[in-house]
Write a structure and sequence with these properties.
- The protein contains 8 helices and 7 strands.
- About 50% of the residues lie in helices and about 15% in strands.
- The protein is an alpha/beta fold.
- The longest helix has 22 residues.
């Protein structure tokens, strides 16, 4: 089973994917996470990608494709996967359609104000990867990871000016892909924080299981 998740930055894709993947027993493949891992490991690909990511710009197709192909070839993808962050343009969507049979396409919808509020308050542990939100899910000790005690950081692309640039690019380059897929897309609201992500996950699972 191959599922594609769409949605602007901060729409809850990661939270929803973590719930759905456990229920379905398939991996969640986020091109953003894969690229950040390359950056963290300071690989040649990661060094190239970092300059784009720090400016809130999309990483070029050839770099994304290279890291994605490596991941899909791993054994845990044999029964399917959840794809997040790809395709990002119509040509990529056509390539994906020629390569795989996509079973479900979900698009997460929320307001721009909510996106900026969420992302500008997000903090990440650089050591263990734990994610916090200063408003909805703050750490017990301000600025410190609950799990490992490391000082939390704000990603460069989670700062307001970079968020606005990411949203502008998303609308210009990614939304046309939704037009390409047309009525194959199922829209899911993720407004109102973490509880919305849990509700969205339940809705997705009901759709996949034929309960809706």
């Amino acid at each position: 089973m191959i599922i594609v998740f769409f949605g602007p930055p901060g729409s809850g894709k990661g939270t929803i994917a973590s719930i759905v993947k456990k229920e379905l027993g398939i991996p969640h493949i986020s091109t953003g996470d894969l690229l950040r891992e390359e950056v963290k490991n300071k690989t040649d690909l990661g060094i190239k990608a970092k300059s784009y990511m720090d400016r809130g710009e999309l990483v070029p197709d050839d770099l994304v494709l290279e890291v994605l192909k490596r991941r899909i070839e791993k054994p845990d993808c044999k029964n399917g996967f959840i794809l997040d962050g790809y395709p990002r343009n119509v040509e990529q969507a056509k390539t994906l359609d020629r390569t795989f049979k996509i079973d479900y396409i979900f698009n997460f919808v929320l307001s721009e104000d909510e996106i900026i509020r969420r992302l500008s308050n997000r903090r990440i542990c650089p050591k263990c990867g734990a994610i916090y939100n200063l408003i909805s899910m703050p750490p017990k000790t301000p600025g410190i990871c609950d799990q490992c005690g490391t000082a939390l950081i704000q990603r460069e692309d989670d700062k307001p000016e970079a968020i606005r640039e990411r949203l502008k690019i998303y609308k210009e380059q990614t939304e046309p892909v939704l037009e390409y897929y047309g009525d194959r897309v199922i829209n899911i609201s993720t407004e109102n924080g973490f509880t919305a992500s849990k509700r969205a996950s339940k809705q997705i699972l009901k759709i996949i299981r034929g309960e809706i």
